[in-house]
Design brief:
Largest sheet: 4 strands, antiparallel
Helix content: 10-25%
Radius of gyration: 22 Å
Shape: globular
Strand order of the largest sheet: 15-16-20-19
Strand content: 15-25%
Length: 467
């Protein structure tokens, strides 16, 4: 969660109450980097703790809270003091946050090793009487901090294992779309609220105080840009360059700095000797881009040399090809959305077994076996109350009459939940959904056969929203 340092307790990002701020000019301006911050002088904004509310992020959909993951890890350690949370300001460069993480992790390990609880745990559990090492657990962008931090061999020597869940090691094309100034449309054909300006400024000719204006100031967004061959030109594809980023609407200085930050990271090896990696799959995911007239078109296929592009799916945010690491075989490809990779019950139970050095073969996340996977697709941007939009179930055919999606309000003071049946439309299974209220909502599909439920977060806001 993020707060302004001079206003403790006032969140500017990190819960359901600020979800609508993504489409409010004044709230977005509070998140922008100031001139001093762009010059590397940080401290105006403070990261206070891990998310304890589900929250929203345009195009990247939502992020579920980390309480489930945190409690699972606490249950797996000898003493709660062995666990350390590391919140960080995702707006800032990965390299900067990785430096803070390295210092914090080393200091925490030193403090823990000096406790009597550590000595007791070592005598009880360690056969070779060696002092504790670090076990790093990271979801999404957090894995990029871990990768950068472990470029230092002295720090890497302190690490026993690391777990990464849905980390975009090679970026995500959605970051490029976020920098773009054009209007975007989801795979489902639902127009997204303007990326160029807040909803309140749709009809202001020169307004540009919204999402795009925020994104172009944030090094953290640039560090999510794809570094694999994803820019489609004719029958081929190539990597995005700093010039391309500027052409998309990015800041020239930020684009150049991003390109320089990527050089030491090319084809980085496994993060630790015991790197446990989970990659979400089966969800409709933007995998490449085409740019025409300066406007990004999001493509749901991965280019393959001169051959035809293929749909490799992903977790809805990170493409499958971008979430893998050379020389590391993923522990699994759960049929799960990006936000749920850090919160699903079967996944957090597996993470706990990694932490306690248990038998991972008995606690595998549900991987679906050999059958066709299921995916859930919802709009990337905000929807409008009282207007119908589709949630689409993809994958193995399911009987429409007996299948449904549950929708519940997230963080609302009053409980609100409704069930929408699936219908056959254009060869797909659609749940036509209408929300009668603004706010953050969770859409959940329970696949048949005992698979883990799949959910996506959807934000509904009034397009007449004003500051």
């Amino acid at each position: 969660m993020l707060e302004e340092s001079d206003a403790p307790g006032t969140r500017i990002w990190g819960d359901t109450t600020v979800a609508k701020s993504w489409y409010s000019g004044s709230a977005l301006r509070r998140l922008r980097l100031t001139k001093e911050e762009q010059e590397g002088h940080y401290g105006r904004v403070k990261a206070t703790k891990l998310l304890d509310f589900a929250t929203w992020f345009p195009l990247f959909r939502g992020i579920e809270r980390y309480d489930n993951l945190k409690h699972a890890i606490l249950s797996a350690v000898a003493d709660k003091r062995a666990v350390r949370e590391f919140p960080y300001d995702w707006r800032l460069p990965v390299a900067y946050n990785a430096g803070l993480l390295a210092k914090d992790a080393q200091a925490h390990l030193k403090r823990w090793r000096a406790t009597e609880a550590h000595d007791r745990a070592m005598r009880r559990h360690a056969t070779e009487q060696e002092p504790a090492k670090l076990v790093l657990v990271a979801h999404s962008m957090g894995g990029l901090l871990v990768r950068h931090m472990l470029l230092d061999p002295d720090v890497k020597a302190l690490v026993r294992a690391c777990v990464t869940l849905g980390t975009p090691f090679y970026g995500t094309p959605k970051a490029a779309a976020l920098l773009n100034s054009g209007r975007l449309t989801s795979r489902l054909g639902v127009p997204l609220l303007p990326a160029k300006r807040p909803a309140s400024a749709v009809f202001r000719r020169y307004a540009d105080d919204g999402l795009r204006a925020l994104a172009v100031t944030l090094p953290g967004i640039y560090d999510l840009l794809p570094t694999y061959r994803c820019l489609v030109e004719g029958d081929t594809a190539r990597r995005i360059t700093a010039k391309d980023v500027v052409r998309l609407g990015g800041c020239p200085a930020q684009a150049k700095a991003w390109e320089e930050r990527q050089r030491p990271l090319s084809d980085s090896p496994r993060l630790s000797d015991d790197h446990q990696l989970l990659v979400g799959s089966a969800q409709p995911t933007v995998q490449s881009l085409r740019v025409e007239g300066g406007v990004v078109e999001q493509l749901f296929t991965t280019p393959r040399g001169k051959g035809p592009a293929e749909n490799e799916w992903g977790d809805g945010t990170v493409p499958l090809c971008a979430a893998k690491v050379p020389n590391v075989r993923p522990a699994g490809y759960p049929f799960q959305s990006h936000s749920n990779l850090g919160s699903a019950d079967d996944i957090v139970s597996w993470v706990a077994e990694v932490v306690r050095e248990g038998d991972l073969s008995t606690t595998q996340p549900y991987l679906g076996g050999d059958e066709t996977p299921f995916g859930l697709d919802t709009p990337d941007g905000a929807v409008v109350p009282n207007e119908e939009w589709p949630a689409v179930v993809v994958g193995r055919d399911v009987p429409a009459r007996s299948a449904f999606c549950d929708v519940e309000a997230v963080g609302a003071r009053t409980l609100w939940k409704q069930r929408f049946s699936l219908e056959s439309r254009d060869g797909e299974r659609h749940a036509p959904i209408t929300l009668d209220r603004p706010g953050l909502h969770r859409v959940t599909f329970q696949p048949p056969g005992g698979a883990a439920p799949i959910s996506q977060l959807v934000l509904a806001i009034d397009p007449r929203l004003d500051d």
